[in-house]
Design a protein that fits this description.
The structure is a homodimer. By secondary structure, chain A is an alpha/beta fold. The first copy, chain A, contains 14 helices and 13 strands. Chain A folds into 2 domains: 243 residues, Type I PLP-dependent aspartate aminotransferase-like (Major domain) (Aspartate Aminotransferase, domain 2, 3-Layer(aba) Sandwich); 123 residues, Aspartate Aminotransferase, domain 1, CATH 3.90.1150. Chain A is globular.
């Protein structure tokens, strides 16, 4: 280091060491994700690092795979993509599609639009099948699109659209894709471990999840399932995928019995995911689904008592993510800011077609407990009148409480 | 869930809950990475999750950026790519290069070959400038290649080649690239915070590091620095980068003052990186560089006492990663297996041209302490004779100890 350069360094910088401590505020995070991580997951992540080619680490990978198989309900390949859910999304699109291929994207929310952005960058021709935000995609429209585009290589639809709060019937859409010779992929980032995801029964070829939602682990890793057919497809492409990092066949080679070196595995995140999956097994997968249903039901009862509605088709509402229509005159940013600053509660804003019109409330994994519902409803009862929307005091919390009182068992805090 | 599908689920699976506990073995990880994570970093990672759009989280991002600036010695943009070091590599290549562009890749090891694999997938024309493993790239050869290829858009060279154990003079190579109008990128995965990295002084346009080496954090995030010129280049491309997830301009928009939503940030990894950077500041950047130099010196003295050589040019040996030539007749896998199973010490195997001929010993970050050098030398003294290579007993440890005794101050355990 020369003397000139050292001016950028320690001696010349008066702020040196100034940033030593900063405490993370306690938040009740009820946004679209991340949700809270289980303390047990965080403790598991603090175990010492071992090498990603250590035989002892391979045993941990096998645990993760076997437990992921039970969460995805599949006997085919499970593994993780080393990045956010969007990395799982891009791994699927870039591995399953080649430049010049055609894909049908079912669009009923913001994250579907992200898939289209990715396809365009990959040189993939996109056919859209649209639904309004808050609605599911009409299978008839998908069938029409498949008939009009017999050269379609892949159909993609999102199981649980976090921007729109909608749950779709994936089995039907997947069946249509296969009837027309296309592969089928789905996004289960928000549904995995919180709602039935049946990879094999639905004949899905690729599904990607998130660690930070119903699995109650921190964000940064995307658990995925890949069908044998999809893996074969990736291995027999005419051209290699443009992304080396997100190539599903290379990732599968590392997770496979030969453990072929690819990139450095995020060891601590794998420890955390393993513990998160153990927690799912302890609770029981179906019990966990039921918990998400019951707690969401309590929230809905409370919101109804406040006179608040949702733009989402009642038949297809997501338990993990409730979209709430803002009453006339209530400002989105003011409401979210009051929740955060006065009650330390984070909720999500509207995206895309919903921007400025709704708030989005996530109840996922560790965050999906009655206490959080009560706290949020209580805060809304206090804040909304101040923002010009009068609500009865105490009724929302009572309504939520009555819903839960009917059946206390599935909503126990884990 | 239908009754048929539930056979895949909890009730029908006799192994349910079988995978509850598994302890991580204690290892001394002296491979090419990951290295051990500091307990303080692991503790920081166990803080509660908050949202990646929470104003309190933005303050943490600012801390990380300001401390990364001091580690990269830059006043330009610093941020992280949410993936392994290879994600940082691909983010650079895919953002800075367009399909049909020409790049010169300086090749002196396995990770340079990885850059070429990535370029080929991106449709980039590659010109190689080769050096043997263990040697640095001849600047004259780079200059010749630049003259022969005046349409070169980018030159890439690896600062610290982990496969080959070589440190290169980046300032010279970068200067040549700029003299010929090309951008310059470098890999500092193994050098960042362990050896002088001077982003601004060397006029680098893009550098990517790893969290899991000299920074003593777990793997899974890649700290990067981007020059203003490079960011402008990405923003003015004719076509969008094929990767949405690894697009440096989108990542920069999230880390910038507007915090534009991109993907979900790996919150816990950012907590960990922040604490890792605080540890660097507490130790002092130059002191940390010196620690890596001193501890590597002790290892070299011990290896010399064992009569073991290195294939790496003595003038350019990396402190963080020492390549050791295996004596005639000593089997690579047997040696590594004895180290792991009898002493719980992990070292790396040879890659590429070095496969089967060497072991690679990493001394990085938290793993870079005298105790680890003594333990490894002691184990080698015991194991090597059994594998057919006689060595004097006790001399290697003594030699290492004598080296350190000369100047105890910089090698204190932090």
């Amino acid at each position: 280091m020369t003397s000139t350069q050292s001016e950028n360094g320690r001696m010349a910088d008066p702020n040196y060491l100034a940033t030593r401590s900063r405490s993370v505020p306690r938040r009740m995070i009820l946004g679209p994700g991340p949700s809270s991580a289980s303390p047990r997951v965080l403790r598991a992540m603090s175990q010492p690092i071992i090498g990603y080619l250590d035989p002892a680490f391979f045993e941990i990978l096998e645990d993760v795979q076997s437990m992921l198989s039970r969460v995805f309900l599949t006997s085919q390949t499970t593994m993780t993509v080393a990045g956010a859910g969007s990395a799982g999304m891009e791994a699927g699109l870039s591995s399953l599609l080649e430049r010049g291929d055609k894909a049908i994207i079912c669009v009923n929310g913001f994250f579907c639009e992200r898939q289209i952005l990715m396809c365009e960058r990959l040189g993939v021709e996109v056919v859209r099948v649209d639904a309004e935000y808050g609605r599911t995609v009409d299978p008839q429209l998908l069938e029409d699109a498949l008939k009009a585009n017999p050269d379609t290589k892949l159909v993609s639809a999102i199981h649980a659209e976090t921007s729109a709060g909608v749950l779709q019937d994936i089995a039907t859409l997947s069946g249509l894709a296969h009837d027309h010779g296309a592969l089928f992929m789905t996004d289960v980032v928000t549904s995995l471990a919180g709602t039935s995801v049946e990879f094999d029964a639905w004949e899905v070829d690729y599904a990607y999840g998130g660690s930070q939602k119903c699995l109650a682990a921190p964000p940064g890793i995307s658990p995925v399932a890949v069908s044998d057919r999809a893996l074969e497809h990736v291995r027999n492409r005419k051209t290699l995928p443009s992304s080396w990092y997100l190539d599903l066949s290379l990732i599968a080679n590392y997770w496979g019995p030969d453990h072929v070196h690819h990139h450095t595995t995020p060891v601590s995140m794998i420890y955390g995911l393993r513990e998160a999956l153990v927690l799912v097994e302890e609770e029981g997968l179906e019990t966990r689904w039921l918990r998400h249903e019951k707690v969401a039901g309590a929230l809905r009862a409370g919101l109804a008592a406040l006179g608040l509605d949702s733009p989402v088709d009642p038949e297809h509402r997501l338990n993990q993510l409730t979209v709430v229509t803002l009453p006339e005159g209530v400002d989105d940013a003011e409401l979210r800011s009051a929740l955060l600053n006065e009650y330390s509660i984070e909720v999500g804003r509207g995206l895309g077609q919903f921007a400025g019109k709704v708030i989005r409330v996530g109840l996922m994994g560790e965050s999906c407990v009655p206490a959080n519902v009560f706290a949020l409803l209580n805060a809304l009862e206090r804040i909304l009148p101040r923002l010009g929307y009068e609500v009865p005091q105490g009724e929302a919390v009572a309504a939520a409480s009555m819903t839960l009182a009917d059946d206390p068992s599935p909503v126990a805090v884990v």
